[in-house]
Design brief:
The protein is mostly beta strands. Helix content is 14%, strand content 46%.
Length: 118
């Protein structure tokens, strides 16, 4: 019985580790003609259609969504992955934004990467 409990605990721990939230690894923001382009690199333990990183978004300092980039399929063999979103209007006077990732199981990650705009 004790051995079974330990084995079950090990399995649950491994599953929890595989189900980590997506992590924003890097963000590159570039302004051209008043609009912004964001290149965002995310890592996540995508395991197929049942659990994958499916979006990232840009937030203002109050947490309001400015833009969202949907990821429409899993990237099991492409980790980390980088995707871009362009034509983004950032409100005048904004010096910093947040970038947050989402997956299909856990929703929006708690961690928000702060990005200074230059």
């Amino acid at each position: 019985m004790f051995k079974t409990a330990i084995t079950l605990a090990m399995i649950l721990t491994a599953q929890a580790a595989a189900a980590d939230n997506p992590v924003i690894q890097n963000v590159h923001a570039n302004q051209s003609g008043g609009l912004w382009t964001f290149d965002v690199t995310i890592s996540h333990g995508d395991d197929g259609w049942g659990h994958f990183a499916d979006a990232w978004r840009i937030l203002d300092s109050s947490g309001k969504q400015i833009a969202v980039r949907e990821l429409i399929h899993p990237h099991v063999d492409e980790q980390p992955l980088t995707r871009s979103l362009s034509g983004i209007a950032i409100p005048a006077g904004t010096a910093e934004v947040g970038v947050q990732a989402r997956d299909t199981v856990d929703g929006w990650a708690k961690d928000i990467k702060k990005v200074k705009l230059k």
